[in-house]
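Final report, closing paragraph on structural work. Over the funding period we assembled a curated collection of sequence-structure pairs, and we close with a single example.
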Amino acid sequence: MTDEPTAAERALYLATVRRGGHLRPDDLAPADRPTLAVLVARGLLTPTATGYTAVNPRAVGDRLGTELRTRATRLLVHTESLPTALAPLTRAYDAVPRASSRTGEATHIEGNADIRQRITELLSDCKEEFLAAQPGRRPLDALRMALAQDLALLKRGCAMRILYQPVTVTDRTAQRQILLRTGQGAQVRVLDEPYQRVMIFDRTVAVIPAAEDATRAAFLTDPAAIAFLVAHFERDWSRATPADHHLNPPPPTTTRIGRLLARGLTQRAVATRLGLSERTVAAHISRLRDRYGAQTLFQLGWQLRGERDD
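Its predicted structure, as stored:
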């Protein structure tokens, strides 16, 4: 039985209300008997000497709401105590040496369910750093499913850096998912260029697609291969812009200054063009450098290369 009445239950209850709140056995069709039993079990109808009487749904809702809150509280308490209860098993698991693959050897796993299961295990084992490059649109269901484990990883003190393409961060629901992670310390950047999908765990295991339809993945442990993938990730990371640039647009004046800088104008030329002091323009440029993660004006110009003046 679900928490909410079905269409048949609602119809029978409303029919009872229309009869003045009373339902006689003669008013029931044989097919209504199972629905009647459920309404009585819910407490929306109560038996009387002559039939059944409708109960105020508000009272029933308050009672069910209290029961659900109590159930939710118990589940939350159980969730908090579960890691402690499993701690001895976790320590035993961590104490077992992991057999590493031979140099150049990769483990291939087929099937989305098996791939997700292995990635879940790697996330649970991750202790220091998780890197991910996720090109293309990121499915919202995947973001939601991974949220709890991502937050648990961040809570353990692991670093998390994720690359997305603009197509992901334009979706408002995806933006909320990203903010839930960045609010807990994750770093997210956006790169408007082609790049390859990869996940790297503690710089010891890397996962890359092994089939175009993503139904097969290669799990790499060779240090040279992982170093190569990390170097590519760091190169792409340095060219990407912080997610804040896409999630929270800067003030119009700052945007205007950025566009003029992207056209090659100097700080003084920008100040003259907009009728601002050089000090004001310098302050806006400083905010742009922070926003784009640029250490120099050259890097800022590179990050702003896609901007155009109106």
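The longest helix spans residues 57-95. The chain is about 55% helix and 15% strand. We thank the funder for supporting this effort.
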